[in-house]
Specification:
The chain is an alpha+beta fold. It has one domain: 3-Layer(aba) Sandwich (Aminopeptidase). The chain is built from 4 helices and 9 strands. A 4-stranded antiparallel beta sheet has the order 3-4-5-6, with helices on both faces. Strands 7-9-8 form a 3-stranded antiparallel beta sheet, covered by helices on one side. Helix 1 crosses helix 2. This is N-acetyltransferase domain-containing protein. InterPro entries: Acyl_CoA_acyltransferase (IPR016181), GNAT_dom (IPR000182), N-acetyltransferase (IPR051531).
């Protein structure tokens, strides 16, 4: 039974079931397949990365999980299909919020618009809060309205902007206080 939104008579959908796990070596290939789409990569340089990039990224995430207690986790849907990642890691670039822990998400195009990114990001926030973090940031391209919406659904607020030397635009830096 669906609940009705107080603002309308449109049934409100339940958030999709998502599961997060530490990325495996095989997930490098699954991430590559999921993100091998110009629309997915539109705000991340516009083109797909080589499998080797995902092999290094998944290996780094396993190390983060072992050392920090959090990472970019592989996101699985109700059928245990890899549909993306979400989680947190130290900001990996020499520009932007250096020294901060960034929460992020990336989702296969076939799963956009169904609540997966928000549901998984909420689970990631709970995990990083449990790991003892007091806040996280999220860096978002200003034209990426989907990611801006996820950040806002998490309760993040815009804290500042940083010039992105790769895209030439001011990247939005959202912040979320996690409390104790």
């Amino acid at each position: 039974m669906s609940s009705l939104s107080p603002e309308s008579s449109v049934p409100r959908k339940s958030p999709p079931a998502v599961r997060l796990r530490v990325p495996t070596e095989e997930d490098a290939y699954a991430w590559h397949r999921a993100f091998d789409d110009p629309e997915v990569m539109e705000f991340l340089g516009g083109r797909s990365a080589e499998v080797s990039v995902y092999e290094e990224l998944t290996a780094r995430q396993r190390k983060h999980d072992a050392e920090l207690g959090f990472c970019l986790w592989t996101m699985l849907d109700e059928d245990d299909e890899v549909v993306g990642f979400t989680g947190a890691q130290p900001w990996p670039r020499d520009w932007g919020p250096t020294g901060e822990i960034e929460i992020g998400w990336r989702l296969a195009r076939t799963h956009w618009g169904r609540g997966y990114a928000s549901a998984a990001a909420r689970a990631a926030v709970a995990r990083v809060r449990a790991a003892g973090l007091d806040h996280v940031v999220a860096m978002v391209h200003p034209h990426n309205t989907r990611s801006v919406a996820v950040a806002e659904r998490l309760g993040m607020t815009l804290s500042r902007t940083y010039p992105n030397p790769m895209s030439g635009v001011e990247a939005l830096c959202f912040r979320l206080e996690l409390g104790s």
